[in-house]
């Protein structure tokens, strides 16, 4: 090896090591939020498979339908984070992600919807009564209606269910002619007063190997 080859070999080696090391590092904070490994806001940190977005100081998750959901909290040791359910537009009973059919995760991504979410669906069509959801007059979704009075969801047909492992863990579906709005509560407890519900959709990730 001559000096020139030696030099380029060395430079290559250093570059490869640098990119290898930084790929294992946590990303800088987004606004006031820490971005723990493996979550990645850019190609130089975290693990690129675990892509999230730092949009103007707000850490966000991008669905398969290209809809952004704000990340509210992250629990890296449990491989989980909680996203904000979409807003229900004032005086209507439409979730802001209704146009894209609700929340859809890419099946090939490392993320899925955890089994700690109690999903509440609003303004459902009668056909949903055939499903195994809780659409009774004492369903928890009736409580939500009382506190969220400014939404147009009052007195619409609503149903709730625990998103358990028997269901797809990649979607919460809304559509015109089905149910047009939804919210979700993490670790719902029927004894809890509605004002202390923890609104959110908990997602989990497969740890990198
Ligand atoms: C970015 O965030 C700042 C502070 O929260 C806000 O004033 C500004 O309007 C935001 N800009 C955009 C493009 O959202
Ligand atoms: C519906 O939810 C209420 C309140 O949590 C519960 O008491 C009731 O048993 C549920 N009904 C069905 C059919 O699951
Ligand atoms: C409820 O859904 C139907 C379509 O399924 C829609 O026409 C109606 O406007 C919705 N109601 C509200 C209050 O948004
Ligand atoms: C979701 O991901 C977790 C691990 O990240 C896994 O244990 C679980 O089986 C997955 N659930 C489904 C229904 O794929």
Automatic annotation (TrEMBL):
Signal sequence, start to end: 1-23
Chain ranges of the Wall-associated receptor kinase galacturonan-binding domain: 27-81
InterPro entries on file: WAK_GUB (IPR025287)
Its membrane topology: Single-pass membrane protein
Cellular component GO terms held in the UniProt record: membrane
Gene Ontology terms for molecular function: polysaccharide binding
Location of this chain's protein in the cell: Membrane
Sorted UniProt keywords: Signal
Domain of life of the source: Eukaryota
PANTHER family: WALL-ASSOCIATED RECEPTOR KINASE CARBOXY-TERMINAL PROTEIN-RELATED, WALL-ASSOCIATED RECEPTOR KINASE GALACTURONAN-BINDING DOMAIN-CONTAINING PROTEIN
Name listed for the protein in its UniProt record: Wall-associated receptor kinase galacturonan-binding domain-containing protein
Natural source organism: Vitis rotundifolia
Taxonomic lineage from the root: Eukaryota, Viridiplantae, Streptophyta, Embryophyta, Tracheophyta
